[in-house]
Each structure stands twice: as structure tokens, then as C-alpha cells.
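Input sequence (281 aa), recorded before submission:
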Amino acid sequence: MGRFARSWALVKASAAVLRSDRELLVFPLLSSVCALLVAATFFTPLVFGGAFAHFHEGGQTPLWLWPLAFLFYLCQYFVIFFFNAALVGAARIRLDGGDPTLADGFRIASSHGLAILGYAAIAATVGLILRAIEERAGFIGRWIVGLLGVAWTVATFLTVPVLVNENLGPIEAVKRSAELLKKTWGENLVGNAGVGLVFGLGIFTWILLCTGLAVLAAQSGSTLAIGGVVGLGVIGVLLLGLLQSALQGVYAAALHCYAETGAAGFAFQGALVAEAFKIKA
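Predicted structure, C-alpha cell format:
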């Protein structure tokens, strides 16, 4: 309960930043739209061209598809990291007492475009390696791959803030992110997990509520009512996911700020951030 309370306090502090700059929500929104466009660009020709009919019966990816998969991963990660860099850069301006604009975020992300592309290439390579191992591993192997994926996500949590604020190359930024995590907060990102827990509970509650409304609508026999409830449910889940992405971006910016200066900006108390993490003995 103590960890949950601290995590909730961090969510509220991150929300204070978003209340000051609601336009920060535009960055994860554009990221989602662009990611969908990238996915459509890659998968539409493959689906209509019958490319997936050539998969082996065992479900393994054919060799000719791996280069295309790498290109897809590269484009997707670049889009995600670019808009995340814009969000983190703008949030850092607010944390330093400034008043950021959308143009500031895009300017910061564009100025680190090559580094972001390099980091996207690293993430794409790691993703493909894990995917290849997962396809060829048994049940236990898949669990191990899953744990490796979680470890990679945690270790690189601060990579984008490092790229934006420390002007390092992609490889150095990944190393720096792991170094900051190990040195300052240990291995347990309680705050970040708390954000996921809060929104996970929120999404679950919203789905339960909409399911109940859908049952009532079905009993009324109104197709329009059922469609309205389903649409409301989808929109609510998307909005909660959008807000979660924005909060996590602000949170990442605040953590890096705290690692650099010992303070996390106007909306955060240093002791709160420090206690939200279990320091490695």
C-alpha cells in the first residue's frame, strides 16, 4: 500500500505538469497515428499480396521476411522515440521553469534525429534477436525471452531523456541509462510500475463498466445503443492509453532531471521521487 500511495503521488505530480501544458498530449497522439500509418504501409501490401501464406507450418518467419521486419521495427521505433523525445524535451523545459510549446518539442527532437535513428536501429536489432529466439525456444525459453525483454525495457527507460539532455550517441545513451538506473534507483522502478498499475486498473474498471452498459443495451434490443456503448468503450480506452503515455514521458523527464540535479522540477518533491525507488544495496 505504501508503494501504491507513492506511485499515486507521482502520477498526480506528473498530471500537474500535464495540466500546465495540456498540449504535451499531442505528442503521444501523433506518435500513435504515425505508428498506425507505418504499420498500414508495411502490412497492407503483404496481406493483399498473400505474403503471409508462405509462412512455415511451425509459425517461423521465413528468411526473406527478416530484412523487411527489421525495416518495419526501425521505422516504428523511430516514430515512437522521435515523439517521445519531443515530449521529454518539452517536459524538461517545464520542469526547469519554462513555458514550452509544441514547436520547442519538435525542434528538440529534430536536433537529435540521427541519434534517435541510431537508437531505433539498436532497439530494432534487439527486438529481432528476441523474436528469433522466441520462435525457436520452447515454453520455458519464451518465459526467459519475456524476462529479457522486460530487463531491456527497464534498462533503457532513461535512454531518450539522456539522448535529449546529455547529447550522447545512441550506444553511449543506452549505457548511460543502465548506469543511472543501477546507480540511483536499483532494479525496481516502482514509480513507473505504479503508473502502469493505476492505468491498468482504470482501463479494467472502464471495460467492466462498458460491458455492463452493453448488456443493458443488448436487453433493450437497440443496435444503435449497443454500437454507442462499444464506441464509448473504445474511445475511453484510447484516451486512458494516451494519458498514460504522456504521464510516463513526463515521468521519464523528471527522473533524468532528478538524476542530474537532485531535484525533479517544480511539480515533484525530491524525497518523494527518491522514496519511490528501492535503492540497490
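Checked by second reader. Residues 2-275 form one domain.
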